[in-house]
Amino acid sequence: MPEHPTIAIPLDLPDVRVLRTTVTANREVIIAVESTLTTTTCRRCGQTIDATYGEDRPIRLRHLPILGAAVYVEIRPKRFRCPFCDDHPTTTQRLSWYEPKAPHTHAYERHLLLTLINSTIADVCQKEDTLADAVLGVLDRWIATAIDWALVPPFAVLGMDEIALKKGHRNDVVIVTAQRANGELQLLAVLPDRTTATVRTWLASIPSAVRRQIRTVCTDMWTAYVTAVQEVLPHVAIVIDRFHVATHYRDDVDTFRKQELVRLRKELPKAQADWLKHTLWPFRKRAADLDPEEQDRLDRLLALSPQLEQAYEFREQLTAIFDTTRSKAAGLRRISAWRQQVSASGLTCFAPFLKLLDTWLDLIANYFRHHQSSGFVEGLNNKIKVLKRRCFGLYNLRHLFQRITLDLEGYRRFRPQPALTAH
User: Fold this and answer.
1) CB atoms within 10 A of CB 207
2) What are phi and psi of 19, to 5 degrees?
3) Is the CA virtual torsion 189, 240, 359, 168 positive or negative?
4) What is the DSSP string of 133-160?
5) Four-residue CA torsion sign, 262, 268, 274, 277
6) What residues does 20 pair with on adjacent strands?
7) What CA–CA distance (Å, rounded) separates 402 from 388?
8) How far apart are CA 96 and CA 13, in angstroms?
9) pLDDT tens digits in sequence order for the chain, 423 residues long
């Protein structure tokens, strides 16, 4: 038979030596190994023992693939007898690179988790020729279903927002996240509903040392969130997200635009009415982002409706206030002046937003202190929506917590480590 070129690569399994390697007809690589450790710890008394007592039955563990071939490591664990216990029980030696009764090595389980990031269990099963239960088992062994506060890095900003598990159904869950000093996100909880009682109970469960370090809570205008935070975290600044606020006043102006377009199409000759086409996005975009053609379309629209032009200018003025104001006092003063101008103008399109300011202005103005917003929460919500679509729904909250955690932290936690010294 012709000789095939070969290479030597480290197995990266500590405390073993390779006995033999076999390649099956299905191109599976079976690597038989034995332990190089000569002691273990007695399962009963905890002392180190070295009196061998044969070997256990062989176990076969899936390991990292090599050149596209499936690899299995086969080992017969050593058994030792304890001379210190009265009935001299035996203990099976356990090595660090696998768990008893697990079908994979630790390295292969980390590989499976890397493959699962931004993917689905079904896809991983297809790629790795494995079963869904095996992947779920790996997920449960490596990813917790709830936060371990002892492992959470310090943070001062907490965010809360809801997301629907199923479109068109009233089954919102609350996603609670922290933003670390370096900008990275930390998932803290997935709450089953957004009632005051649920949010209050969860906030009260945060260790007191962690609660004391929280300085800001970013949220939308949902009374249950605000009430719960004020009760449990009275020392924090509650910031109503500026982008939720912007949605309200921009929607008011957009509603007025639609009304004006209906009126203008009825009153104008057809040639002039045609100028109104393709004005939606020029009207909605920021003035600084318009190209010359979009600016021309916008100018034509606003020239036909002075009141709409005035509403557009008020909208841009308020956006500029949020962009440039750097203190709460200045923010309150500038919004008050803006409100007076709107009231004096006679425009009624801002009436819903002005009513909103009556209730939420103080918490909205907290934004001006440090320009903190729920942008990090909204970004995560978009990621979760993609995750739900990928998985055709994800309704188990424990699994949802695991999958979000894996997508956020998986590359940092499970990427390959530097090679170990191996035989």
Assistant:
1) 10
2) -95, -45
3) negative
4) HHHHHHHHHHS-SS--GGGPPPEEEEEE
5) negative
6) 32
7) 13
8) 9
9) 456 788 888 888 999 999 999 999 999 999 999 999 999 999 999 999 999 999 999 999 999 999 889 999 999 999 999 999 999 999 999 999 999 888 999 999 999 999 999 999 999 999 999 999 999 999 999 999 999 999 999 999 999 999 988 876 677 899 999 998 888 899 999 999 999 999 999 999 999 999 999 999 999 999 999 999 999 999 999 999 999 999 999 999 999 999 999 999 999 998 888 888 899 999 999 888 999 999 999 999 999 999 999 999 999 999 999 999 999 999 999 999 999 999 999 999 999 999 999 999 999 999 999 999 888 888 888 888 889 888 877 889 999 999 999 999 999 999 986 554 444
Tokens of 72: 């299995």
Hey, what amino acid is at 276? L
Q: How long a stretch of residues is the chain? A: 423
Question: What is the C-alpha separation between 314 and 267, in angstroms, rounded?
Answer: 25
